[in-house]
Specification:
Number of helices of chain B: 20
Number of strands of chain B: 4
Helix content of chain A: 55-70%
Number of domains of chain B: 1
Structural class of chain A: mainly alpha
Helix content of chain B: over 70%
Largest interface: A-B, 61 and 79 residues
Radius of gyration of chain B: 21 Å
Strand content of chain B: under 5%
Largest sheet of chain A: 2 strands, antiparallel
Order of helices and strands of chain A: HHEEHHHHHHHHHHHHHHHHEEHHHHH
Oligomer: heterodimer
Chain lengths: ~625, ~500
């Protein structure tokens, strides 16, 4: 099928064009947008089962490479490309230094990852996506920090891909083939004989996937990198690129089906159980760290990988409901995270800073952005009837149905913590008093407004009619050989214990909202006060070294709670990686001393080497 | 045995032209430079003809003395591809020199450069172990002088260090050759290779150690590579490019030819005759070089020095790839050698342009993107290719290298883990420079104007890197048949030179 190739060639062509005209920002962004649109048009023509193969003369043989569409890959393709269309549309008026051609290269790589049938092209695409995104991050707002963030990401990501590379070769040496299908079925066949080999090989792959999705303990790069990436790129990074890891996990998770009869924990095989815990811990770590952030991009970076923890915990169960819940949450995360990051980017582009304690009251200036953000965080918090409720509800059901009480409690905790940080961001950015600095702030451009309206619509639509997403997910679940959940109309979510009619929930929520609004309307009148008109009892704030920002009630928003958690924060995974990096550098500066610049030393080195060889030869002799 | 004596021109023409350059120099200095370009164009086209029309493998026989009695050149697939690469890199650097060689004794610079390229081609094509020494001396002496060329005093220091270490190397090599000659009474590589098992194992081991130690100097393997950082840093950039793009290719080639063809004992994995397996020795040297090179490069603040250490580390990688001893390993080694030669030569040339507008510290790369997008993009392409990232040539060779070493298994798994770790280190310092290029605004926003004659070679290298990255078949096929020459020495090499000989 040529349209499969088009999914690779169109973005590459677009990327070349965008690279050539990158001097003209609007033209470049237009190219980027239209490339995404054209790719989406090609995608419409593509059906499950389409395949394309070719062979490459490499390694002294002809290596079969191929593209193939599975239910999972088409789901992922639609998700990523459609989101990309929306994002590049929004980016048309965005002014950061993001290079569109790198985004388009990432798109080509991403399409390839989802379609690859062999590890050679999978790795090729994976690395391509890696370096394109690394270079894209270099364009951040603050130069030194964005370089640091990109390098941190690069180190983790390259380390992860080398780990995957080792896995690929350990595997392909056993089977003599790069085909993903063959290798996975080979692993299934030796599963009972050599479980430890399988575990070892698959772990090598999982490191790469965990890095990319920001799963504990490889989550440390996420806040640095998201916090410093160009504003136009960060929604893509967090909404789309984090899903590559999830896709990777789903390549290998079917392996565990053959372990179902082996005793494990609570009816779950050990690998699944362990991954569920990795997911749950990630969710908690992300949420707890998120609510202590004052930098809005960092806050949502933590939030982002915390949600990835939810997704991993659900898909790791690899039961019909777990898988459905995980994929559903992946979709919802894409939407609400996109909505949140796009609005955050819109706000940052208007106020020019990322510290939340210096914002505040912006809803008066940017009402539509405010509304979008509200819908986004309501979805993220899992409040019905928005998207995000259904998937979280299903995740909890999936967990409890396996009796994973402790992990479920952790996830509940993470969910509550997520209320806290979402509340913090919501208050700090949009509510409260407006600083005079922002008197001239305006709502974003018409293009931004269209994007936001679309996002609100999508979040509500898929919240009320989850069936439109659950249907394709059911076919994915079926393609893994699991029994899909029963369906009963687009407005229903069928869980393990019960099913929910989202339309009735929607009506209830609307009624409750109207009731609440009526109460608000009839209650006492409100008085607006400026930021300075505050609680200092006649003192002049300057005498106290106070600035207007410190009156912002979101300054040190969760101070008591921060103090409670502070001792735990001394455990730094981040510190481990940093320390490791430092010791490598230290090693480097010691080793460099070998090359003193003195020719006598060099001569001694050479002669010394020779003597050692001769002695070695003599001993063997 | 196929003969094609016309190919002697490959070695003869550059040497002849080199020595007649002073005559042209009397007419005009420009003419001397153009003679280099023309000669190397001839070399490149001729070698390309040999490659594309599949003239190889053949012998060049001097004065009808059939090997092993006379001196011969043997140009098989390995020599062909390497000569193509060397003459291409040489041609590009000579075009670059039209712009860069403008001070001092331009005429003699052109002479030395041409001599160096001609010597390297001779080194690769000769079929005689003593002629290897002669060509090593030709390249050596011309490169000492080349390295000393330029306005800076440090060039002299670098060249002197190179001279000292390299002389030790060639002495050791000569001594090794002597030991073999006393045993077998012949200097022909093919004959020695066929009869190597007739020697006394003890003496052979000693000879092998001497040869490896001597050749490791040119192949930039630790601990014989002390000269590398200072010489590369001291020399002007086109000379660094020459040393790294041409000199190291010749060095590694001879090392591998001697160890795998002359000493090699064929099996599933090539090992060597004698008491000590020289392949293991090279594996150890190569791995140590990779680690030491990458770690030293990590902390450099001078970008030229960084490239020098990286060059050393890459040579270690190549040596390690060959030491695997399988056909796939040799294939990966050749592939990596070619990719490195192109990419590193390009980086040095780019640096030459940048240095002519400013310093050579890592900080001076800041904001290169704003000064010259062309140089920024090409530098990035070269760096990413060296890191083995996809769309660029380096990806395929690194992939092949990892494949080969995991297929070998055993302690190569361990070596590979070390090498991959070193690669992460390498990624860090290259990406750091790339980061400087793209993120920071420059201190002085002076634009860098790249003239046409340096732009041509840089662009050509960049296009070639991407072409190999997208169509690895360009290099893949010929590399694989070249690998056969190394891993099956009788049918790959010896019988092509002396069809009647019987292996012992």
């Amino acid at each position: 099928m040529s349209s499969l190739l088009a999914l690779l060639l169109v973005p590459v062509t677009g990327s070349i064009v965008a690279a050539i005209i990158q001097r003209y920002r609007l033209a470049e962004r237009l190219v980027s947008f239209s490339t995404f649109v054209v790719t989406l048009l090609f995608l419409i023509d593509i059906r499950v089962g389409d395949a394309f193969t070719w062979s490459l003369g490499f390694l002294g043989k002809n290596i079969e490479m191929g593209l193939q569409i599975t239910p999972l890959s088409i789901f992922m393709l639609y998700m990523t490309i459609a989101f990309g269309v929306l994002l590049t549309f929004f980016d048309l008026t965005e002014r950061s230094k993001m290079k569109s051609f790198l985004l388009l290269l990432t798109l080509a790589a991403s399409n390839w990852i989802f379609m690859a049938t062999d590890f050679l092209s999978f790795f090729f695409a994976w690395e391509l996506m890696g370096w394109a995104s690394i270079l894209a991050i270099f364009g951040g707002r603050r130069t030194a920090e964005s370089r640091h963030g990109a390098l941190y990401y690069a180190m983790m990501s390259i380390g992860g891909s080398y780990s995957m590379l080792i896995g690929i070769f350990l595997l392909s040496n056993l089977t003599g083939s790069f085909s993903i299908q063959q290798n996975v079925s080979y692993l299934v066949s030796i599963m009972t004989v050599h479980p430890w080999w399988v575990l070892g090989i698959v772990s090598m792959f999982f490191v790469a996937f965990m890095v990319k999705s920001g799963i504990f303990p490889f989550h440390t790069w996420v806040p640095y990198t998201y916090g410093e990436s160009p504003d136009g790129f960060v929604p893509y990074l967090s909404s789309v690129m984090s899903k590559y890891g999830i896709y990777g996990f789903l390549i290998f998770l079917p392996l565990t089906l053959s372990l179902r009869n082996v005793p494990g924990v609570l009816g779950l095989p050990w690998p699944n159980y362990t991954l569920v815990w990795f997911g749950s811990i990630t969710a908690v770590v992300g949420s707890v760290l998120a609510f202590m952030q004052d930098d809005v991009k960092k806050l949502f970076a933590y939030s982002s990988f915390s949600n990835l923890g939810f997704i991993l915990a659900a898909i790791a169960l690899f039961t019909p409901i777990g898988l459905t819940a995980g994929l559903f949450h992946a979709f919802n995360h894409l939407l609400f995270n996109g909505a949140i990051f796009i609005t955050v980017v819109a706000v940052i582009s208007k106020v020019g800073i990322t510290r939340m304690s210096e914002m505040g009251g912006l809803w008066q200036k940017m009402p539509l952005t405010f509304l979008t953000f509200f819908v986004g965080i309501a979805s993220a918090a899992g409040i019905p009837p928005f998207a995000g409720f259904g998937s979280k509800w299903m995740i909890f059901q999936a967990m409890i149905s396996h009796g994973l009480i402790f992990a479920t409690v952790l996830l509940f905790f993470a969910s509550i913590a997520s209320f806290l940080y979402l509340m913090r961001a919501f208050h700090a950015i949009f509510l409260g008093q407006l600083s005079h600095k922002y008197d001239n702030v305006k709502e974003i451009s018409a293009i931004g407004k269209i994007t936001e309206v679309f996002l609100i619509g999508a979040l509500i639509f898929f919240g009320i009619f989850p069936g439109f997403i659950l249907d394709p997910i059911n076919s994915i679940v079926g393609s893994f050989g699991l029994k899909p959940l029963p369906t009963s109309g687009y407005e229903y979510i069928n869980g393990f214990f019960s099913s929910v009619n989202m339309v009735s929930i929607f009506i209830v929520v609307i009624v409750a909202f109207i009731f609440g609004f009526l109460l608000f309307a009839v209650s006492a009148k409100h008085k607006k006060v400026p930021q300075e008109d505050n609680y200092t009892a006649g003192q002049i704030p300057k005498d106290w070294n106070l600035t207007p920002e410190m009156y912002q009630f979101s300054y040190d928003f969760y101070e008591p709670m921060d103090k409670e958690i502070a001792p735990f924060l001394k455990i730094k995974i981040d510190g481990f990686f940093k320390g490791f990096g430092d010791s490598v550098e230290y090693l480097g500066s010691s080793i460099k001393e070998i090359f003193t610049g003195n020719v006598q030393i060099y001569t001694y080195l050479a002669i010394g080497g020779l003597v050692i060889f001769v002695i070695a030869g003599w001993i063997v002799w | 045995m196929k003969t094609y004596n016309f190919a002697a021109l490959l070695v003869g023409v550059p040497l002849l032209m080199a020595f007649s350059i002073p005559l042209f120099g009397f007419i005009s200095k420009q003419l001397a430079k153009w003679i280099t370009v023309l000669t190397l164009t001839f070399e490149f086209l001729f070698s390309l003809y040999i490659l594309l029309w599949h003239v190889y493998p053949f012998n060049v026989i001097m004065g009808n003395w059939v090997p092993p009695f006379g001196e011969n050149l043997y140009i098989g697939s390995l020599a062909t591809i390497l000569i193509v690469v060397i003459s291409f890199v040489g041609l590009m650097i000579s075009i670059y020199n039209l712009w860069s060689a403008k001070y001092g004794d331009v005429v003699h610079f052109a002479l030395l450069f041409l001599m160096f390229v001609g010597g390297s081609i001779g080194l690769i094509s000769t079929g005689d172990i003593f002629n290897v020494f002669i060509f090593m001396e030709i390249t050596g002496i011309s490169s000492y002088a080349l390295a000393a060329y330029g306005p800076e005093r440090r060039a002299l220091g670098g060249a002197f260090k190179y001279l000292v270490i390299s002389s030790i190397g060639s002495t050791l090599y000569l001594f090794g050759v002597l030991l073999i000659y006393t045993q077998l009474g012949t200097l022909n590589i093919a004959e020695i290779a066929a009869r190597i098992s007739q020697t006394t194992p003890g003496l052979l081991t000693f000879a092998g150690i001497l040869l490896v130690a001597g050749l490791a100097v040119e192949a930039e393997l630790f601990p014989f590579n002390g000269w590398v950082p200072d010489t590369y840093t001291g020399a002007i950039n086109p000379v660094s490019a020459t040393l790294s793009g041409i000199g190291s290719v010749g060095g590694v080639y001879v090392l591998i030819r001697i160890v795998m063809t002359v000493f090699g004992k064929n099996g599933n994995f090539v090992s060597t005759y004698g008491n000590l397996d020289l392949m293991t020795l090279i594996a150890i040297l190569g791995t140590a070089t990779v680690v030491i090179g990458e770690l030293s490069a990590l902390v450099q603040t001078n970008i030229k020095k960084m490239l020098a250490y990286s060059s050393m580390a890459q040579m270690g990688l190549v040596a390690m790839a060959f030491s695997i001893g399988s056909r796939l390993g040799a294939y990966a080694g050749i592939f990596q050698l070619i990719n490195h030669s192109i990419a590193k030569a390009m980086l040095f040339l780019i640096l030459g342009v940048i240095v002519s507008f400013g310093g050579e510290r890592v900080e001076d790369m800041k904001g290169l993107w704003y000064k010259s997008p062309f140089l920024a993009v090409t530098f990035t392409i070269g760096a990413l290719s060296l890191l083995g990232l996809p769309l660029f040539g380096g990806f395929w060779s690194k992939f092949a290298l990892v494949d080969a070493s995991f297929q070998r298994g055993g302690w190569y798994d361990f070596i590979m883990a070390i090498v991959l770790f070193a690669s992460v280190v390498e990624a860090f310092y290259y990406l750091k420079v790339v980061g400087y290029i793209f993120t920071s605004k420059p201190a002085v926003s002076e634009k860098i104007k790249v003239e046409i004659s340096p732009a041509i070679p840089i662009a050509a290298f960049a296009i070639l890197i991407i072409a190999i990255g997208i169509f690895p078949q360009i290099v893949s096929g010929i590399s694989y048949s070249a690998a056969h020459e190394l891993t099956d020495k009788m049918s790959g090499y010896v019988l092509n030179v002396i069809p009647t000989i019987v292996g012992h």
